[in-house]
Amino acid sequence: xxxxxxxxSHQVTQMGQEVILRCVPISNHLYFYWYRQILGQKVEFLVSxxxxxxxxxxxxxxxQFSVERPDGSNFTLKIRSTKxxxxxxxxxxxxRDSANTGELFFGEGSRLTVL
Amino acid sequence: DQQVKQNSPSxxxxxxxxxxxxxxxxxxxxxxxxxxxxxxxEGPTFLISISSIKDKxxxxxxxxxxxxxxKHLSLHIVPSQPGDSAVYFCAASERYSGTxxxxxxxxxxxxxxA
Lengths: 115, 114
What we know:
The complex is a heterodimer.
Chain A: E1 5-7, E2 10-13, E3 19-24, E4 31-37, E5 43-50, E6 53-57, E7 65-68, E8 75-79, E9 88-95, E10 105-106, E11 110-114
Chain B: E1 4-5, E2 10-14, E3 19-25, E4 32-38, E5 45-51, E6 56-59, E7 62-67, E8 72-77, E9 86-96, E10 99-104, E11 108-113
């Protein structure tokens, strides 16, 4: 069964360092998303991406964040200068343009710990 | 402004009984509603969805009911099993600027007691 894969599963970094989280969405999907979940809190929307550009971003997704789909398969989230409050599970998700279920498929997540 | 709300942070149910998880929403433009199950340190897993033009969808032990006039949906799990213990997120999707926008509730932690 096709799945969304994310790497790394866990990254520990020092405050102020750059981090890149990688995702390989399901191959025939067209819509891509990043969400995050701070420990014990809700799943928060960060950004959506379609047709090689950002469709929408939340207020969390400030100038320190960027996304890229460099080669048609990977979808990356970059945090330029990490802060302590960026520590969270980051989930990549993808969806196809479906009239059936509107289902969003999630990866297993990348845990980011900023020290 | 929280467009998707799960007002019960937790729920405990005896094994074999029915679990009912509730969700309210405010945006009448949502076109799909979805339920996800999440274990700690894992990604949310899709369970079941319902189109806004329907009022019920059933898949095995899981049934989702949609009451559009009340802007309310619920997930019924029957019979509940200990393996169902997880956090359940309600989500709603809307077609927006050429893409789909998905909004999640805050989750309900279900504990099924053996």
